[in-house]
Amino acid sequence: MPIPDDAAARRAIQPVICYPVETLPKPDLATYSRARAGMTKIGETLAPARDAATFEVPAGHIFRISSVEGPQVGDLNLWNLNDLSERFYSGKTRALHGTHVDTGDRLWTSFPTLRPMATIIHDTLDWYGFDEFGGGVHDVIGTRCDPYTGNLLQGGQYHYCCHSNLTRALSDHTGLSLAEAEPHVHDVMNVFMCTGFTHDTGQYFMKASPVRPGDYIDFFAEIDLLGALSACPGGDCGSEHSSDTAPCFPLKIEVFAPAAGTLDSWQSPPPNGYDRSHGR
Ligand SMILES: [Zn+2]
After folding, report:
1. What integer pLDDT is reported at residue 243 of this predicted model?
2. How far is the CA of 161 from the centre of ligand 1 (A)?
3. pLDDT for residue 1
4. Residue (of 231, 202, 73) closest to 137 by Cα position
5. Over 80: is that where the pLDDT of 244 sits?
6. Which contacts of 170-179 are long-range, i.e. CB under 8 A and separated by 24 or more positions?
């Protein structure tokens, strides 16, 4: 292909941020940290290695995902506890906050509600930032490891991908059949996963997670939540996933009630204000 004479000039055009977030409603982090400072644990569950667990978090409560035993990545799905059709929207969260999320970023719901469903209020891996390869932690890029892509690329039938783990867990929690539960499973937040895009070819890469036992990330539930977390068969995702070869560890999920009286000024966010008339 001929390169146009003004190729350099075209490439030199400055990028523009797609969604300047200055006008987004700012999370009140001071209130959240007061709620967190005196919080009381009310529940705990463990996502076993290569399997998933579900958990419920009332609005205004806090949930924590912790590394225990060894470095492990988790694939997180979130739904409105009272309406599974309102769920985490990875693509819009990425468009608003970037490829990786950290303290102060929010996880947004699908259309038509498009509202914050959870806010990240503490993260012991905040120090990581972006490494020399362009890798960061907690991505909202990846979709979830699944048996369909595995079959496409390598053939075979592997049942303990995050997609199937999340499907079984949601089915167990709700009583829905596997076939009914599966369409509710959606693109994830990759908790503790270290990923980026290669500088030369722009390919999605992963590398061994910097997470260590004792590390954790805290989320504030903006609405009543049903969560499902899969301890990915990729373990720390340093080599491969979608197989039983990587060392895998459980992930701990804890739910906390906020310190009394700290949320008097907080309100659960209402659904999005667009009137849905779509020009008709
Ligand atoms: Zn996975």
Report:
1. 65
2. 5
3. 83
4. 73
5. no
6. 170/54, 170/77, 170/228, 172/54, 173/54, 173/226, 173/228, 174/84
pLDDT digits (tens, 9 = 90+) for 178-199: 999 999 999 999 999 999 999 9
Distance 158 CA to ligand 1 centre (A): 12
- Judge contact between 115 and 135, C-beta under 8 A: no
* Ligand 1 centroid to residue 243 C-alpha, Å: 10
**Model confidence pTM above 0.85:** yes
Distance CA(36)–CA(258), nearest Å, equals 6
pLDDT score of 142: 87
Tens of pLDDT, residues 77-124: 999 999 999 999 999 999 999 999 999 999 999 999 999 999 999 999
Each residue of 179-213: b (16+ CB within 10 Å) or e? eebbebbbbbbbbbbbbbeeeeeeeeebbebbbee
> If you measure from the C-alpha of residue 154 to the centroid of ligand 1, how many angstroms do you get, rounded to a whole number?
16
The pLDDT, as a whole number, for residue 6 is: 94
Cα of 63 to ligand 1 centre, how many Å? 21
CA of 58 to the centre of ligand 1 (A): 26
Angle made by CA atoms 252, 63, 233, in degrees to the nearest 5:
35
What is the distance in A from the centroid of ligand 1 to the CA of 26?
Answer: 31
CA of 233 to the centre of ligand 1 (A): 6
User: Residue 18, by phi and psi: left (phi above 0), alpha (psi -120 to 50) or beta?
Assistant: alpha
**Ligand 1 midpoint to CA 230 (Å):** 7
